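User: Hi! Is it possible to get a structure for several chains at once, not just one? Here's what I have:
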Amino acid sequence: MPANRGVSVHPELGYELVETARGLLLLQETLRAAAMQRYGLEAQRVWGPCRGTDLEGLLLRHPFLDREVTVLVGTHVTVDAGTGLVHTAPAHGVDDYQIGRRYQLPVDNLMDDRGVFLPEVPLVAGLKVWAANDVVIEALRETGHLMAHKPLEHSYPHCWRHKTPIIFRATSQWFIVMDGVERNGGTLRAEARRAVDATRFYPAWGHARLSAMIENRPDWCVSRQRVWGVPLPFFVHRETGVLHPDTEHIAGQVAEAVSVRGIEAWFSTPAEHWLGADADHYRALTDTLDVWFDSGSTHAAVLRQRPELGFPAQLYLEGSDQHRGWFQSSLLTSVALHGHAPYEALLTHGFVVDGQGRKMSKSLGNVVVPQTVMKELGADNLRLWVASTDYSGELCLSREILDRVVEAYRRLRNTLRFLLANLGDFDMAHDGLPPESWLTLDRYALVLTRQVDEVVRRGYDSYEFHGVTQRLLTFCSEDLGAFYLDILKDRLYTAPPGSQARRAAQSALWHITQALTRWLAPVLTFTAEEVWATLQGKTVEAASSVFLESWHELPVVTEEAVLSARWDRWRALREEVRRHLEPLRTAGAIGSSLQAEVTLRAGGEALEALQSLGDDLRFLLLTSAARVEAWADDIGRARSGITLIEIPGAEGNWRMELEMVVSQGHKCPRCWHYREVVGEHPDHPGLCDRCTSNLFGAGEVRHHA
RNA sequence: UGGUCCUUAGCUCAGUGGUAGAGCAGCCGGUCGAUAACCGGCAGGUCGUCCGUUCAACCCGGACAGGACCAACCA
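Assistant: Yes, the chains can be modeled jointly so their relative placement is included. Here is the combined structure:
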């Protein structure tokens, strides 16, 4: 009230003059009833309504000061509560300040920094603002202006730290102009706009967000009334408040001194040193610089100072809240200095929230601490969680989510373990074979690996790590575990150790291991280092690091398209056959698929292709026998025990008949296939024909699987 | 209140204007030479809600709800 300079009404709302026992009251029409009830008065007569604009400029007497104030018109007036007539003190609050400017009202700063009214203020001089409240109310009561008095609780800005209500005061500030000054063919805002357009954003919507902020931001207020921080080395004239004419030069000198002697160079140097004879007429500002200016200057203080760093930076990375903060202050300072952004690209991430998408807070009890996760599950799992998450939005974190992450880790780790185990007797330099000497399945595995390689590289290049981990997981589960490695076990465990069939498999596995370990290294760093050391037959301490490597360059397979198309088909065939094996298993007829024998009947292209596989077909299907026959004339007619299957592929579906029977052979203890035992070797009567050959003869020959 | 964005199976994520996909989890089974593993099968979603555009929408437009971040307001 001591700072009151006006009363605001809404231009479009209706106002009424109400006759009461206490005289005439001006009230907003929709609020009249509530107000009268609050005052305990009856409306004896009502005039109006008139519009708010009609009241503009009316002079009102201040309730206890010898002052006339004006009725103002502003759209910030609402009818939520009160009378529709708003007390306005331009020194206290944004709305009041702005409307005060429009009407050129004086801004009365009647309160000092401690919240105490200045000595010259009538009625409340020397009182703290809270104590003054009672005095003001009492004064209103005494002069007969108090209509009602009721304590009211409503949300009001509070100090985030002390939780005490904040008093708004109008204060002089320093601004960096966004639109007023042109140079290089544009204002700071225009240049900033161009710099935003020249920046790459991850994710792309960051562009819209930063653009909008540049568009909407007001002039940059860079002064803060704080005792710590970087000082604004400004001197203002004691009478006029005008900046010293030599400010730019002085600021340069101060900066120079501070860079040599530290911040004390400013605080401990008397004004005479900077201003000479002018010192008596000027006072030094005590304001500090906006802290965003500090952090926004890292491109000057760090990037441009350290020889190992470049400017502009390839990437600035921060939480999405920094569009308003660091990203923007860095942009504006750099644009002002150099005309371009201090970064080539911006990457932002969201914030960690719980499983339900709620922000973590102590009161909700849903906080998951990274340190705890590290301690319990290890850094690799924590990183894997981050890398599995689409961090462009919120990052959900909960017990269940971590459980899933650990499952994924186990899968990746186990795959590596299998690969390492099967490379134990393999030395690429001595035992390695070129892809031309591999079986077609091995070459196909290489093709699959190359496909993953492409996805992984692209994913890392664009910082989309969750795509990478997702793909690597399916690679390990589907391509390797459920397909390639599943088939490969027979060859790895039963072919002669140094045979071409086995060395070919190991050569492919070697390339896969090389690629996989490097793909995983950025995420599973410890695990990858262990794998890398194991591959060298050394301890992690003695071995060279995987982080000294680049991506593995996989060999190129000739006629990749043909090979790939053919094996896509075989893979589909395998899945189809295994699915149809399931009823036999459920019926208890077989356990392992090796207990089954399969006959496929087809014609034309399909028949030729199947025949080309030869005996390798049974290794593909993981059955003990797989026969191929040309279809008879009655093909396609339902017969018991025979299923018609369709195998999709690039050249269209292939139809074939599938017949499955339980093998009548005996299980070979070495290769587990069920065979008519040949027993050529007297010492090993139980061994099957090919095991005997592999052990004592020329060894089996394989071309495809 | 304004700005930017998110919402697809229990979880993490794909996805295309035209019958919804994967991995993991779940259930059932197999195997026992990746075993604090491995393999197979099955089940599971009115693609946040509502309204439009369209012959046809998870995919386009609008509104709403919930959530995240930023900025503001609270007489």
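Chain A has a mean pLDDT of 86. The first strand of chain A starts at residue 6 and ends at 9.

User: Great, thank you!
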